[in-house]
Design a protein that fits this description.
single chain, alpha+beta, Phosphorylase Kinase, domain 1, Transferase(Phosphotransferase), domain 1, 7-stranded antiparallel sheet, 5-stranded mixed sheet, disordered N terminus
């Protein structure tokens, strides 16, 4: 059963008028069919008691009775799970009805396309919209996980995005309540393979971190327009999840860091809710608000009002020339293994050359001076990047990427930041994710990577908060990616290449 066939919503023009008046439980009049598939039919219906329209999922099971009992219990779990959640991004389940041997689940009718529909029709979505969708789905997942529920099938087809900005996560029909062991599905693949986390491919039980991985693949799809790990067969798809790393080509900065942080292979090393939320807020140009103790969303929308204010497009600033266009490179390299809590506490697989991030600026570990890409100083704490040298001559260090962390401007004051200093952890993650990805891209020849080491350099909090002026220009809120020979030897000519 495809998702397009069974989703409990849809624009009115897609409704097929039902033949004859049919009433369920003496209350719900079935108006038309929204979709159908192997597990049932979804109807648009009218609740004649309250007067509102609803979506009704009429369960239809395979002929085998053993399958029917498992599926019936699974779908009833949807009611129990959905009924326990209270979040604006979760589709509300109103009722469950058993009549004449059939089971009906009555739920909120949402008139909206899915995220899959939007990307199919429009292509990759703008970064701010992707970040906003991600933040709201993250809120729904946090509420579910706090209630002991794992969704198990987070994907674009299960996320609805309304024109007014509302986002809804649906289909908790295969959700798993961690404290309810009665239902077992031994030998069954529950969920969509292309969005399945590595630990689930290994046969481990679904966990909250598994949903976060699926959110990462979903946001990747929204940002790139393709499914990161989908291959021609299920076996090839599962193999790709376990062995391959995705390449981001359209996004950078906080959104890229959030996506890559969610797609860390080891579940214990994935970003936490707060870390992801902070990055998604930064990608929208807003400051994340504290999460309330209940685990629900921190910003409750008024009817028809957006949750957040998106900053206008950043004004063009007098940046130092960049030989590397990160708009093109973004994070097209592989971030495999894991980034740990703002520092490289353990080098991720494929990035054993990474060294801990350093700081520059006021009270920083590195001093920045003249512009340039190559320097004859070692890659370590205490260096002074004051006198650059020609990259065609012997040198010890190369800058292979540099970028402003947040180019967000206030509409009333060109020098004022909407986003306050987001914390060392967030700043480090943004820089490390992009430096790691760029190091593993064609910017650094693959044949030479094994002999190289690299590290990110980011601003201190004091440097971030310093107002830009003629002496300290825009990179007071930027980061650098530096590389050198692992053995400390001279580099005879420039290693890195420009990406056009």
């Amino acid at each position: 059963m495809t998702d397009e066939q069974t989703r409990p919503y849809g624009p009115p023009q897609q409704t097929q008028q039902a033949t004859g008046a049919r009433i369920v439980a003496g209350r719900y009049a079935l108006l038309g069919e929204l979709g159908r598939g192997g597990m049932g039919i979804v109807w648009r219906a009218q609740d004649q008691v309250i007067g509102r329209q609803v979506a009704i999922k009429e369960l239809k099971f395979p002929n085998a009775p053993e399958d029917a009992s498992v599926l019936s219990e699974r779908m009833l779990r949807e009611v129990r799970s959905g009924g326990r959640l209270n979040d604006p991004a979760v589709v509300t389940v109103y009722d469950v009805v058993t009549e004449n041997g059939a089971t009906y689940i009555v739920m909120e009718l949402v008139e909206a396309p899915t995220l899959a529909d939007l990307v199919r029709d429009r292509g990759p979505l703008p970064a701010q919209q992707v970040a906003l969708v991600g933040e709201r789905v993250l809120s729904a997942l946090r509420a579910a996980h706090a209630a002991g529920i794992v969704h198990r099938d987070v994907k674009p087809a299960n996320i609805m995005v309304a024109p007014d900005g509302r986002v809804k996560l649906t289909d908790f029909g295969i959700a798993h309540a961690a404290d309810d062991p009665r239902l077992t599905t031994s030998g069954m693949i529950v969920g969509s393979p292309a969005f399945m986390a590595p630990e689930r491919v290994e046969g481990r039980d679904a966990m909250p971190e598994s949903d976060l991985w699926s959110l990462g693949t979903t946001l990747f799809f929204a940002a790139e327009g393709i499914v990161a790990f989908e291959r021609s067969t299920t076996a090839a798809t599962l193999h790709a999840i376990m062995t391959e790393a995705p390449y981001l080509t359209r996004v950078q900065g906080p959104l890229a860091a959030a996506i890559l942080g969610l797609l860390v292979t080891k579940p214990e090393a994935r970003m936490s809710y707060d870390q992801v939320r902070s990055l998604l807020a930064a990608a929208q140009g807003v400051q994340a608000q504290p999460t309330p103790p209940s685990g629900g969303t921190a910003m409750m929308p008024q009817s028809g009002q957006p949750l957040t204010r998106l900053a206008p497009a950043p004004a063009k600033r007098n940046l130092r020339p960049l030989w590397l266009s990160l708009a093109a490179v973004a994070v097209i390299g592989a971030l495999v293994g894991g980034i740990f809590l703002g520092r490289w506490m353990a080098a991720p697989e494929g990035n054993s050359q990474a060294q801990p991030t350093l700081t520059y600026g006021i009270n920083g570990q590195v001093k920045l001076g003249s512009s340039g890409d190559c320097y004859n100083v070692p890659l370590k704490e205490g260096i002074n990047l004051n006198d650059g040298v020609s990259c065609d001559k012997d040198h010890l260090l190369e800058i292979f990427a540099k970028r402003a962390l947040l180019e967000v401007e206030s509409p009333s004051d060109d020098d004022a930041q909407i986003v306050d200093y987001p914390g060392a952890e967030t700043v480090n993650r943004i820089a490390e994710a992009t430096c790691s990805a760029t190091f593993n891209s064609k910017v650094v020849p693959s044949a030479q990577r094994a002999s190289l080491t690299w590290r990110a350099v980011v601003p201190t909090e004091a440097e971030w908060n310093r107002s830009p002026n003629e002496e300290v220009r825009d990179y007071s809120r930027g980061y650098y990616c530096l590389l050198a020979k692992t053995d400390g030897s001279q580099i005879p000519s420039q290693i890195t290449t420009k990406v056009k």
